[in-house]
Amino acid sequence: MKNFRIVVLDDVKDAEKLADALVGGGLPCAEVTFRTAAAEESIRIMTEKYPDMLVGAGTVLTTEQVDKAVAAGAKFIVSPGFDAEIVDYCLDKNIPILPGVISPSEAAQAVKRGLSVVKFFPAEQYGGVTTIKALAAPYTMLKFMPTGGVSVKNLKDYLSCDKIICCGGSWMVKGDMIKSGEFDKIKQMTKEAVELAHSIRK
């Protein structure tokens, strides 16, 4: 996986159509953020309609949200920061967790717990690829998943770094596009993003 979509859904009626657009665009993977009331049911719909799709829950801030997301079918959990309670809770339950890190101290906590992949968020605001390379120097066992400010313009910079396992972005799944039902456009932009990622990492 070189790329995946960060998805914010305000209405569950859009979940299946969005999943169809992502799968049709060649990227059957999405992080549905728990920023809205529709997140839990949207995950359930997407995983039921597309059981082979890799759907996770993002912006998870509590262990209660972890339980709701997993019950709905989420296959992984993403937290914006390194919340030790959430990380330990997921590890105890064998739930894949990608906590956010931006500092050596947080990276050390991840390594201490045996994690091999972490989120780097917000990526652009905290130095992007330069900071990731600096963090990876002492923590050679870690791979990073940058999100936050990743776009077509800088995707090559990120994917050219071997310490980056994949990138998360939302430029092809913007909220106004979902609300206006532009799923064909989302599908096309997803396809273009996948092709770009493949051209960078052949």
Comma- or semicolon-separated keywords:
202 residues; TIM Barrel; 4-stranded parallel sheet; globular
Please report the number of helical segments. Answer: 9
Write the element-wise H/E pattern from the N-terminal end onward.
Answer: EHEHEHEHEHEHEHEHH
**Arithmetic mean of pLDDT:** 95
CATH uppermost class: Alpha Beta
How much of the sequence lies in strands comes to 15-25%
N-to-C span: 12 Å
CATH architecture: Alpha-Beta Barrel
Structural Rg: 16 Å
Let me know the number of strands. 8
Q: In what order do the strands lie side by side in the largest sheet?
A: 3-2-1-8
Number of domains: 1
Q: Which shape, going by the Cα principal axes?
A: globular
The CATH superfamily is identified as: Aldolase class I
Q: Can you characterise this structure?
A:
The protein is α/β, with parallel strands linked by helices and 202 residues long. The chain has one domain: TIM Barrel (Alpha-Beta Barrel), CATH 3.20.20.70. It is 43% helix and 17% strand. Helix 1 (15-24) packs parallel to helix 9 and helix 2 packs parallel to helix 3. The longest helix is centred in the last third of the chain and has 18 residues, at 183-200. The radius of gyration is 16 Å and the shape is globular. The model has no long low-confidence stretch (mean pLDDT 95).
